[in-house]
């Protein structure tokens, strides 16, 4: 969460959802050349510049704020211009934010920031103070997600618990894992609860709903980077530990609906378990394959080849030289028996155990 470039390059999932929401709500708003716009939790600034800006029919200027100086610096370097500026501000801890922005804003947006905020009453009170009379506010955040259930499971792993369960308040026994779990994660009706908070701060709520979103990654190889970019704990680990931790995250994250059936080749090849294995396999191959001696006569066997995707897409490119590769699996349905050669691919009937 503190790596701006990684986050900017790995946030396809939130960008997808933001695009859908902007296309729904932005045409309903009235726009003026005098509109002053605030983006709360702007992060590295890419969403502010590439999604929010083009969706605004008219405006005078946009300000993006974020609590991370590292994010603000990145946003300033890559996206700031005469109509778009970035400032460091924590919307919860800010005292009299109108001292910083005395003219306020006609429109306030926030995308995938508020699920990190536990004192939402304070945050909404500050937004209310910054919003000009008659202004409009659009907030998008995660109320509930299996990602946070995954954190709850991983913290029970003795290897990861020290990184995820750091005591931040000895007197009250507070653990920072729970600082990264949305307050609505286990609520029955998140939309109703949030509406009540917002209305108590003085807002008139036009719409408040918690729809379910499903996202399909175009490339499974980008999933580890995404999980690393949004994970608040990896920065506490060594690089080697980060790789192992992300593999465990992938194993615990239900990226495919339903259970992974080991006899379903297509489902298994695209499942969260398979993604974890591919990520781990790539690391191991990059480390060990250069240490081996290779020959054009090498005959290679891949035991437990499954649907054959790892054999073809990871093992094959890692072999400097070889004559042929044979993949075997105990499941007839997975792969009968795949034989790969440099110039051809032949599938033979039968299977071996």
From TrEMBL:
<dbReference type="GO" id="GO:0008168">
    <property type="term" value="F:methyltransferase activity"/>
</dbReference>
<protein>
    <recommendedName>
        <fullName>Methyltransferase domain-containing protein</fullName>
    </recommendedName>
</protein>
<keyword id="KW-0808">Transferase</keyword>
<keyword id="KW-0489">Methyltransferase</keyword>
<feature type="domain" description="Methyltransferase">
    <location>
        <begin position="37"/>
        <end position="135"/>
    </location>
</feature>
<dbReference type="GO" id="GO:0032259">
    <property type="term" value="P:methylation"/>
</dbReference>
<dbReference type="InterPro" id="IPR041698">
    <property type="entry name" value="Methyltransf_25"/>
</dbReference>
<dbReference type="InterPro" id="IPR029063">
    <property type="entry name" value="SAM-dependent_MTases_sf"/>
</dbReference>
<dbReference type="Pfam" id="PF13649">
    <property type="entry name" value="Methyltransf_25"/>
</dbReference>
């Amino acid at each position: 969460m503190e790596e701006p470039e990684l986050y900017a390059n790995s946030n396809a999932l939130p960008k997808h959802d933001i695009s859908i929401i902007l296309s729904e709500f932005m045409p309903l708003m009235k726009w003026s050349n005098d509109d002053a716009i605030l983006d709360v939790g702007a992060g590295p600034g890419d969403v502010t510049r590439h999604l929010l800006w083009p969706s605004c029919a008219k405006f005078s200027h946009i300000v993006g704020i974020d609590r991370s100086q590292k994010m603000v610096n990145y946003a300033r370097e890559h996206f700031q211009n005469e109509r778009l500026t970035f400032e460091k501000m924590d919307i919860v801890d800010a005292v009299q934010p109108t001292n910083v922005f005395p003219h306020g804003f006609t429109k306030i947006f926030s995308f995938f920031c508020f699920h990190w905020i536990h004192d939402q009453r304070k945050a909404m009170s500050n937004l209310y103070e910054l919003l000009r009379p008659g202004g409009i506010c659009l907030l998008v955040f995660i109320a509930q997600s299996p990602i946070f259930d995954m954190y709850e499971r991983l913290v029970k792993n003795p290897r990861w618990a020290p990184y995820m369960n750091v005591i931040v308040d000895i007197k009250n026994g507070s653990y920072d894992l729970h600082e990264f779990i949305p307050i609505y994660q286990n609520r029955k009706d998140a939309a109703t609860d949030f509406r009540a908070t917002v209305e108590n701060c003085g807002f008139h709520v036009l719409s408040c709903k918690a729809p379910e979103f499903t996202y399909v990654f175009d490339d499974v190889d980008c999933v580890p980077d995404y999980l690393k970019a949004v994970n608040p704990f990896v920065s506490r680990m060594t690089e080697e530990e980060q790789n192992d931790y992300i593999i465990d995250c992938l194993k615990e994250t239900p990226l495919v609906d339903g259970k992974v059936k080991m006899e379903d080749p297509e489902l298994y090849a695209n499942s969260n378990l398979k993604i974890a294995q591919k990520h781990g396999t790539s690391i191991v191959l990059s480390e060990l394959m250069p240490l081996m001696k290779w020959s054009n006569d090498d005959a290679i066997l891949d035991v437990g080849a499954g649907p054959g995707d790892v054999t073809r897409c990871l093992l094959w490119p890692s072999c400097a030289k070889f004559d042929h590769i044979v993949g075997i699996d105990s499941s007839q349905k997975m792969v009968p028996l795949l034989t790969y050669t440099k110039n051809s691919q032949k599938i033979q009937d039968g299977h071996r155990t």
